[in-house]
Structures are given as C-alpha cells and as structure tokens.
C-alpha cells in the first residue's frame, strides 16, 4: 500500500520521548483489503534492519518484543482491522513503547514495551488474516528518540556571568535600595507629622483651659452687730452711710 506511517503531526506533549513515540493512526488505509476477522499489526525495526525483516506467515510466528535486542525487530499493537475503518471513531494516535509492565512479566504474547535505545527506528503496518499477511504499508522514515542525559554529565555549578551583566545587576539593586529608602522615608515623615499635629492640639487646649484670673472678686463682709448705729470714730467703720437710729 502507498501509505507511509509517520509521527503524528498533531501538537502533543511527549510526542517523542526517550522510550516512546506517537504514530498517526492509519484510518481508511485497509478498508478495501480487510475482512471482519483480520487484524493489523505494527512492525518495529531498527532503521538498518528493515532490509532483512520478513513478514511472519502466521500469528504464531510473530516476532515478540523480548527478541528485539537479538532479532533487531518485533511486532506489536495487534488491533482489529475494523477499528481502522473510515467510519470507526478512534483515537488520533498510537503510542509505541507505552506499556512499561510487559517488559518485566515475561509474557509470551506480543507486548508494546519501552524502546531500549534512541534508535533510529522504522515502522510499518501489516494486515494479517487467517492464512497470513494480506497487505502492508511502506516503511516509515527513520524515527530518532530523545537521548536521556546521564546525571554525571550535568554540571551542578551555574554558569558564570559576564562582568557587564554583574555591573548591570549591581546598579539595578542599588536603585531598588534607594527607591525603597525614599518611599519608607516619605511614609515615616507623613506619620510623624500626623503625630506632632495631634500633640500640638492637646497642648494648646491645656494652656487655654489653665487660667488663674477667673476667680471672682471677694464679696463685702457683713458689719459686726451694733456697728450700724454707732457714730463714726467709735470703732466701727462703715462702708456705707449709717442707717438712721430710732430711740425710744
């Protein structure tokens, strides 16, 4: 078939990782060749081993994942052909290498284990019926995975910055300090002025209320008894004219 598998063009997180990659789903590719009982397989091989790959004559002869290191190829993702029909709703991508459990279980059935190295790899889809292969696509272009960095190659020390960058950072830090000082000073002056204004008002009120000349003058004392009708000069000093005396 003329179809060429490829990594999904859709923007995805983790489209290609150190052990997996996401393939575009081959919709409408096998409709004219598949029957109801047929299945579609994905053949995965190292890029330099595709010339020696041979399609298995039956499902029992499918190369398993655990022989990848020796045979340089394996087959996985067995799927009913009906799921790739034009009318079938299905996910947009197929994740190759996404089954981390089957690598350690030693199962004999084909699994989709993590890819052991960056590759590069090439893949193709193979339509198989009860009597063997019926149709196949072309091999994909080489697919190179991301290479994981060894912890020993990571430099824990940050890179040194140039002198110009250091000078600029120092100037910016100084300007920030000056600005912060000015703002704090302005706020302090405002608060201090408010406190002084309150103190001034209290002192003024105290001085205005402390008055010593508000004592009223003393009232005239009443005259001693008998001094009202005595003639002046006999010991009684009248502050007002003597009242007339009535003698019997």
UniProtKB/TrEMBL annotation:
Keywords: Membrane, Transmembrane, Transmembrane helix. This is UPK3B protein. It comes from Xiphorhynchus elegans. The chain crosses the membrane at residues 165-189. It comes from the Eukaryota. GO terms for cellular component: membrane.
């Amino acid at each position: 078939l003329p179809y060429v598998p490829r990594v999904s063009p859709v923007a995805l997180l983790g489209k290609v990782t150190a052990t997996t990659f996401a393939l575009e789903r081959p919709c409408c590719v096998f409709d004219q060749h598949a029957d109801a009982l047929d299945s579609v397989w994905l053949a995965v091989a190292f890029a330099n081993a595709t010339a020696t790959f041979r399609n298995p004559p039956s499902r029992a002869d499918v190369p398993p994942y655990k022989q990848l290191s020796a045979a340089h190829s394996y087959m996985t993702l067995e799927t009913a052909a009906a799921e790739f029909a034009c009318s079938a709703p299905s996910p947009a991508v197929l994740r190759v290498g996404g089954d981390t459990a089957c690598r350690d279980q030693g199962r004999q059935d084909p699994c989709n284990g993590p890819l052991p190295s960056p590759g590069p790899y090439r893949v193709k889809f193979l339509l198989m019926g009860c009597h063997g292969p019926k149709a196949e696509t072309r091999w994909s272009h080489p697919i190179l995975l991301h290479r994981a960095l060894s912890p020993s190659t990571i430099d824990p020390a940050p890179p040194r910055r140039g002198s110009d960058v250091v000078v600029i950072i120092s100037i910016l830090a100084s300007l920030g300090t000056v600005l912060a000082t000015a703002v704090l000073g302005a706020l302090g002056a405002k608060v201090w002025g408010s406190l002084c204004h309150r103190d001034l008002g209290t002192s003024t009120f105290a001085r205005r209320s402390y008055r010593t000349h508000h004592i009223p003058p003393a009232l005239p004392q009443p005259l001693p008894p008998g001094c009202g009708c005595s003639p002046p000069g006999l010991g009684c000093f009248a502050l007002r004219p003597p009242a007339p005396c009535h003698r019997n």
